[in-house]
Amino acid sequence: MEGAAVMSTTTRALVVTAPGRVELDEIVIDSPRATEVLIEVAATGVCHTDVSWAAGTLYDDFPVTPGHETSGVVVEVGDAVTRFVPGDRVVIALTHHCGHCRYCESGHPMLCASRTSQRPRLSWRGEALTQGFGVAGFAAHALVPESSCVAVPEAVPLEIAAVVGCAIATGVGAVLNIADVQPGSRVAVWGAGGIGLSVVMGAVLSGADEVVVVEPHAARRARATKLGATKTVTPDQFESLNDDDFDTVFESAGYTSTMERAIDATRRGGTTVLLGAPPPDHEVRIKALDFVASQKRLLGCITGDVSPVTDFDRYFRLYLHGRLPLDALVTSTASLDDAATLLVDGPPADEVRVVVRP
Ligand SMILES: [Zn+2]
Ligand SMILES: [Zn+2]
Questions:
Q1: Alpha carbon of 214 to ligand 2 centroid (Å)
Q2: I need a labelling partner for 255 at 20 to 30 A (CA). Which of 87, 94, 215, 277 fits?
Q3: Ligand of minimum distance to the alpha carbon of 102
């Protein structure tokens, strides 16, 4: 409403004030603009990129409230919001897309040119607070565009729905939307964190014949096996396999060294998909002539190139029909009070997703 007093919401949030320093404090969230939705956060998964941002190795924007793998219940909507009313259960997709640029129109909202151009909506102690990944999910409330919300079916618990927003979207999306894994094919996956395990789920769903997971932590290898990996190895063991004949290799560990090994392990004419998030100045080296002559395809992947309404809906249906075990990713829950330590130290290696419930 033009001229109406701007109401705001004061809520509790984790604030990373500087690299390695996290406080639980009150923040102020602006009231929803016309196309925005205020949600009461039910759950936010701790993703590797949240930990990297808190450590100062991903972005140098501080103070920031990170957290982006978020679900919740709508509490307030802007005047022009048509798809949701207070009380609706939603999961947040990281699109924040405009809906009408060349990328949105061609079915790639994750590449939208104006995804990250939102104006500051949060403040802390009177100064602007960066809304991490456009969500700031480690808080009791979050303000996001309507276009970034996807309805969650009643039968899906919100703490399970949360992991769809990043891990599942990225991993399953990489398989179904980016790599187009074929039935009977040979797949290798570097890293068995939330995203790597989601790749395993997607590869199994696609009918891959072989899914080899490369992961140093035994507990994570065991989880990969449970989800359908046909073989799990440590990075050293993989080297001694001397196997470079995979149709598709996914790199989710986020190291440029393993990205290079993933490219090497891809067969001639095969596809390498890079999903991990190394620090911004790191570079991958490719043997140029070998790459040309081997006719490999090297693909990037941002949040699985998902179209959230269509894709999340099918993930939820596959979960409800027992074909996509979303719940396998949620290995424990934590309160907002406990989450400060998780952000600074990172979750223990045997956890996949610790879900924070404010
Ligand atoms: Zn994430
Ligand atoms: Zn757009």
A1: 36
A2: 94
A3: 2
